[in-house]
Amino acid sequence: MPIYDYRCDDCGKIYDVFHKVREVVDDVVCPDCGSTNHTRLISAPNVSVGMASSADVTTGCSAGDVCCGGACRLN
Question: Can you tell me the distance from the alpha carbon of 50 to that of 72, in angstroms, rounded to the nearest whole number?
């Protein structure tokens, strides 16, 4: 079920809305003031890469921001 962030155009409150199969804009109501005037905000999804803890990561890379031979576990 997608989660969208909205900002109320009347009072400025930011709130989340859980939408079912399709988005119905008429159903979005500000929980503070009851307004239906809103702007949908762009949200970045949470992405998890691997399950390595900080103890598992090799810190011997001296290449700066460049991945060096798999030590970052991204390749």
Answer: 10
29-75 pLDDT, tens per residue? 999 999 999 998 886 666 667 665 555 444 455 555 555 555 555 54
**Phi, psi angles (nearest 5°) of residue 8:** -70, 130
> Do 36 and 28 touch, CB atoms closer than 8 A?
yes
Q: Which residues contact 68 (CB under 8 A, 6 or more apart)?
A: 61, 62
